[in-house]
């Protein structure tokens, strides 16, 4: 194999990894033949690509696509072990010996047993790179739905802005640090916003190539909503971390696996967390144990005993091992420990030495005034001023000098009676994200919504209030695929809509769709081209659509959609696309320095015969493609 072939094979290997993650998110059940067809390669090329990265003998296990993240295991051993297993065949004796020696000789980490420091009242200044987001200026009904409920868009107006504006910073520059300070009074939703950011970013990172879902990608340094009842980080991604509040429901007794020790001791405890979603993965993982213990309630989560070792002191190598259930009774909490928690009812015991800061922290833990109960004599504290409260001084400085500026433009901010908003989005399965789509206020503010890769089937119902479906295509087989198109138009605008042209080209897994509709003397052309579809096929469809518009005496044309052509010189179709658009008096109106996917590529494009047309790239928390939208004048 010559050097050029080696470079080509390694490039193919990178493309396979990227495409595999896309296929895995959308069609985990595809066969190996379908997988090769999607990659547009044969089995020999696939094998050569795998070998290109190998430097030593390596065993590849034959498995389906939906089994790619399952470690190698032995079925009989796994049933006996009842724990994580990752078996590997030994092909290098030296490597095996090196691994065993390094494993048995590594030292245990010491456990730091530290008492919480007293509150520091010294004046401090937040570093100038911090940006502040003041939630006090949002409406009083501020709330933020959790992303895993698929209702991100059902938030209030102001509460939806921070999350999509933050995502581009992290997606496009994941290695660059950023500093945002979220401000606001009690109950405005600081914890909910932080929790939502954490969950959306977890969802983003676990779908990136080479990332494992079991790895911790997001680690809150000071997680909120903890009550310090679970005393150890057991399953942080599952919500069971140090301080997770719970109610003890049942204790299971048994014997430890120690010779000569037949003592019956608590070996497992079942607890109920405040949120049903906490512990879901743990309950699923230990479902056999739960069934064997005869537990019927599906919200009870098993907590196993854990072993932790630490040094007796700094001057000795003696290790102490503690084997116990990581639970602590907590019928009451100090005000410091309750920080960032929220309760329906609380009873605060007031002493004469409580500072204004501690009173604020204690009283703001409750959801409503009706749930606040006080024991002791309450005296109104001295009002905070710049002179006696350094925190207030710093907050004033940040509000005046470090306000967070949003980088995104929301359609609902510019929508009025004198314009028309048209939006395109490769939604990556409307079937999966429809609850989020039909409640997304950003989408609902648009007049025309064009969605590609809906994965829809003819029997599916996707009606949205106040909108009419004017164009729809579905998967032709009983199996859902990366296929399907839906165009919604606001019902009030329907009398002004006319579909001029529609054409679909389907050849195996390759397909392209072009739909042209007129609205108020303007033509909007929606485009979708699958990754392997030839440019010439799409070119012919586009030319027919443009000619049809001109024949109907409509000369202002906007073309938008997923071209699957990278808007950069390195793409072989970039020059052809640009020349075609120039020949038809169309200019690129999106910012070419931006990206439209989570893979840092610009393939969702927008062209127009009117260079003054406003165009924008938005953000999505559910798809790896970003929505793009334009503003048209409404004469």
TrEMBL record:
The keyword Magnesium appears for this protein? no
Keyword Hydrolase assigned to the entry: answer is yes
From which domain of life does this come?
Eukaryota
Q: Name one GO molecular function term.
A: helicase activity
State the UniProt keywords alphabetically: ATP-binding, Helicase, Hydrolase, Nucleotide-binding
* Organism in which the protein naturally occurs: Frankliniella fusca
Official protein name in the record: ATP-dependent DNA helicase
Tell me which residues make up the Endonuclease/exonuclease/phosphatase domain.
Answer: 524-628
Q: What Gene3D superfamilies has UniProt attached to this entry? A: Endonuclease/exonuclease/phosphatase, P-loop containing nucleotide triphosphate hydrolases
């Amino acid at each position: 194999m010559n050097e050029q072939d080696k470079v080509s094979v390694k490039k193919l290997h990178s493309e396979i990894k990227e495409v595999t993650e896309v296929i895995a998110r959308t069609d985990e059940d595809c066969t190996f033949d379908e997988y090769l067809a999607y990659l547009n390669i044969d089995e020999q090329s696939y094998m050569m690509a795998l070998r290109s990265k190998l430097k030593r003998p390596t065993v590849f296990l034959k498995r389906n696509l939906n089994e790619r993240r399952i470690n190698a295991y032995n079925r009989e051993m796994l049933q006996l072990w009842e724990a994580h297993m990752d078996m590997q065949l030994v092909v290098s004796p030296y490597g095996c010996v090196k691994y065993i020696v390094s494993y048995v000789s590594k030292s245990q980490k010491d456990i730091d047993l530290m008492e919480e420091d007293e509150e520091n009242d010294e004046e401090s200044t937040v570093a100038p790179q911090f940006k502040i987001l003041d939630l006090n200026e949002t409406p009083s009904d501020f709330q933020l739905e959790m992303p895993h409920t698929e209702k991100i868009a059902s938030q209030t107006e102001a509460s939806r802005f921070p999350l999509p504006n933050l995502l581009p910073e992290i997606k496009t520059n994941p290695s660059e640090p950023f500093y945002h300070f979220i401000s606001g009074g009690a109950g405005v939703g600081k914890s909910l916003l932080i929790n939502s950011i954490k969950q959306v970013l977890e969802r983003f990172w676990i779908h990136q190539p080479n990332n494992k879902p079991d790895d911790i990608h997001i680690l809150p340094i000071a997680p909120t909503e903890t009550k310090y009842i679970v005393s150890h980080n057991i399953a942080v991604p599952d919500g069971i971390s140090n301080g997770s509040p719970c109610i003890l429901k049942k204790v299971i007794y048994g014997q430890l696996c120690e010779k000569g020790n037949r003592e019956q001791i608590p070996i497992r405890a079942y607890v109920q967390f405040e949120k049903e979603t906490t512990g879901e993965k743990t309950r699923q993982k230990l479902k056999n144990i739960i069934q064997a213990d005869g537990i019927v309630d599906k919200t009870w989560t098993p907590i196993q005993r854990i072993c932790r070792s630490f040094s007796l002191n700094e001057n000795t190598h003696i290790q102490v091992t503690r084997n116990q259930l990581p639970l602590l009774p907590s019928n009451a909490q100090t005000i410091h420990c309750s920080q960032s928690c929220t309760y329906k009812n609380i009873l605060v015991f007031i002493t004469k030495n409580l500072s204004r800061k501690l009173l604020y922290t204690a009283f703001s833990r409750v959801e409503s005034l009706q749930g606040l109960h006080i024991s002791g004599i309450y005296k109104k504290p001295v009002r905070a001023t710049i002179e006696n409260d350094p925190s207030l001084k710093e907050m004033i400085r940040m509000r005046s000098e470090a306000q967070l500026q949003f980088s995104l433009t929301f359609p609902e901010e510019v929508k009025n009676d004198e314009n028309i908003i048209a939006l395109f989005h490769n939604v990556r399965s409307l079937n999966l994200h429809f609850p989020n789509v039909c409640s997304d206020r950003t989408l609902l503010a648009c007049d025309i919504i064009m969605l590609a890769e809906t994965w829809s089937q003819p029997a599916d119902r996707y009606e949205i209030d106040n909108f009419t479906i004017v164009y729809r295509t579905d998967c032709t087989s009983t199996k859902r695929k990366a296929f399907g198109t839906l165009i919604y138009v606001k019902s009030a605008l329907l009398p002004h809509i006319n579909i001029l042209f529609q054409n679909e080209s389907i050849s195996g897994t390759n397909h392209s769709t072009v739909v042209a509709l007129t609205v108020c003397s303007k033509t909007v052309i929606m485009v979708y081209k699958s990754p392997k579809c030839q440019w010439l096929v799409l070119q012919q469809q586009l030319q027919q659509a443009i000619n049809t518009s001109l024949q109907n005496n409509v000369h202002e044309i906007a073309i938008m959609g997923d071209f699957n052509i990278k808007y950069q010189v390195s793409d072989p179709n970039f020059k052809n696309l640009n020349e075609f658009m120039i020949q038809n008096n169309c200019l690129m109106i999106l910012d070419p320095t931006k990206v439209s996917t989570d893979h840092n590529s610009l393939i969702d494009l927008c062209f127009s015969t009117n260079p003054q047309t406003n165009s924008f790239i938005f953000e999505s928390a559910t798809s790896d493609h970003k929505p793009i939208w334009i503003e048209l004048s409404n004469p």
